[in-house]
Predict the structure of Endonuclease III.
Amino acid sequence: MNNDKRYRIFERLREANPEPTTELNWQTPFELLVAVALSAQSTDVGVNKATARLFAEANTPEAILALGLEGVKSHIRTLGLYNNKSKHLIAMCEQLVEKHEGEVPRERKALEALPGVGRKTANVILNTAFGEPTIAVDTHIFRVANRTRLAPGKNVSEVEQKLMKVVPKVFRRDAHHWLILHGRYTCLARKPRCGSCVIEDLCEYPDKVEIE
Ligand code: SF4
């Protein structure tokens, strides 16, 4: 795919959704960090329900620690893997209090050192809470980048590197959300909705699903 096409793809995505953002509910960087950490193998809707209960009682590392492991579990037990997620959350809060005065750090290295936080979560926090032009490649972005040929790669790290290289600067901060939302609602895994896709004429996927 050439750069002109890439530019036009993002122009279209921007036109369709000028201010894209996450579908997770959050008010502070800490709330976003918790929501993202809880979102593995859960839907955003499910996470929002759980965090609404949790944040009503505790939305700082100190308050979560005061709630304790059982307290956290009781608020998020509707989520898959809630046992492990609760343990990670407590460990993460301990580290935030001990090493970062209860604040979410703005550096990638410090974020990735937190229990339960990998590169993808760190990218989401840097991008969405702090406005950095990072791109967190999840399953949706991986699929869209490969299918369209926008930034093909064999694994998420290759796709991330490629996107960081080829996405025009002006679109880089919002690219993350545009691509996730495109994968979630249009370029679906099993049956992409090519008929109602705003970038259909620019996409280089050879097996487009019949255009209605
Ligand atoms: S045309 Fe189809 S395959 Fe290409 S991005 Fe749109 S939905 Fe996905």
